[in-house]
Amino acid sequence: EQKMESSTRKLEVQKIGGKGPLDCNISAIRHCFNELDDYLPKNLILKEKELNLFQEWFNLLFSGEFNILVHGLGSKRKLFENFQEFLSSYHCFVVDGLFPGMSVSTIFEQIEINLGLKSRVKFKTKINDWAEELIDKTKEEFIFILINHIDSPQLRSRQQQEALSILVRSKRIRLIASVDHVNAALLWDQVFNFWINKARGDSEYR
User: Where is the Origin recognition complex subunit 2 RecA-like domain (predicted)?
Assistant: First the structure.
């Protein structure tokens, strides 16, 4: 019959190279597992938290109902690069909104080039028509567009935002964007159907 002595339980387990029961301190083992996170490298813990965040983002985007707007301290550049890696099985475009000459037309061109599409729109100044055409040509694809600094001067105009909003009306073209403005949630109406998410970047702005 097994005996309990304080927190020590006598388990009928044969000792290696000897005889008799093996003392097993259940409380000590439980405490060890509870404190295990303190002994894990911080980067492993952060990696797990990041993966959980990415899975949450993916579920929201893949539902076709939401786009995501990220705000918070620090640059989101590395965070978005890691999310791009997470989405490696899909078409994914990472855009730096602060890059000189960046525009929604540039984004549309890159989508066409990378997917091998030929545009029927003769005048690319009709950017809204271009967005509609891209929706029609990518019905069989699932595309993620990641934009750092969507509130940059290059992308902030009404024309740029309207064309982009038309493109992401497609449930198969999803947008995740970062903003610098502290009142980010007030910058757009429901046209993008943004899910507002606060996330801290690991690096300073650059």
Answer: 46-190
Exposed / middle / buried, residue 144 (Cβ in 10 Å: 0-12, 13-18, 19+): buried
Distance between CA atoms of residues 63 and 172, nearest Å:
9
CA pair distance 199, 79, nearest whole angstrom? 9
Q: Does the predicted TM-score (pTM) go above 0.70?
A: yes
| Rounded to 5°, angle at Cα 70 from 50 and 81 | 50
Of 47, 50, 70, nearest in space to 147 by CA? 70
pLDDT digits (tens, 9 = 90+) for 159-194: 999 999 999 999 999 999 998 776 655 666 678 999
Tokens of 46: 């952060």
**DSSP character for 119?**
-
3-state secondary structure of 16: coil
- In tens, the pLDDT along 100-141 reads 999 999 999 999 999 998 776 655 568 999 999 999 999 888
CA distances (Å), origin 206, targets 109, 148, 201, 202:
26, 11, 12, 12
Q: Output b/e per residue, 152-187; b: 16+ Cβ within 10 A.
A: bebbeeeebbebbbbbbebebbbbbbbbbeeebeee
Query: By C-alpha distance, which of 184, 202, 204 is closest to 68?
Result: 184
Task: Find out whether 198 and 75 touch, Cβ atoms under 8 Å.
Answer: no
